[in-house]
Specification:
Helix content: over 70%
Number of strands: 0
Keywords: Membrane, Transmembrane, Transmembrane helix
Pfam families: CorA (PF01544)
Number of domains: 1
CATH superfamily: Magnesium transport protein CorA, transmembrane region
Subcellular location: Cell membrane
Protein name: Magnesium and cobalt transport protein
Largest sheet: none
Distance between the termini: 35 Å
InterPro entries: CorA_TM1_TM2 (IPR045863), MgTranspt_CorA/ZnTranspt_ZntB (IPR002523)
Number of helices: 2
Structural class: mainly alpha
CATH class: Mainly Alpha
Radius of gyration: 22 Å
């Protein structure tokens, strides 16, 4: 009886660990996608006129286009690496 109780407790802990690992994997994927976008926002958000695209007439749209391209590229890479399979 004691051995069965111990095995049931281990089963419960293993189930909790599996769920935690699944959550952490999803958070890692989300972080991988948003980390380059954070870098781009930091570069284009600086207050130095020589660094950013302040003088471009379409700089705002170029920034969002670049963000869309980077996000799409990372999604394709993650799919190729098999990160979206369960």
């Amino acid at each position: 009886m004691r051995a069965q109780a111990k095995e049931l407790i281990e089963l419960i802990f293993n189930s909790i660990s599996h769920q935690t690992n699944s959550s952490m994997a999803m958070l890692s994927i989300i972080n991988t996608v948003f980390l380059p976008l954070t870098f781009l926002a930091g570069v284009f958000g600086t207050n130095f006129e020589s660094v950013t695209a302040y003088k471009w007439p379409q700089g705002f749209w170029w920034f969002w286009g670049l963000c869309a391209i980077v996000t799409g590229a990372f999604m394709v890479l993650l799919r190729c690496w098999g990160m979206f399979r369960r």
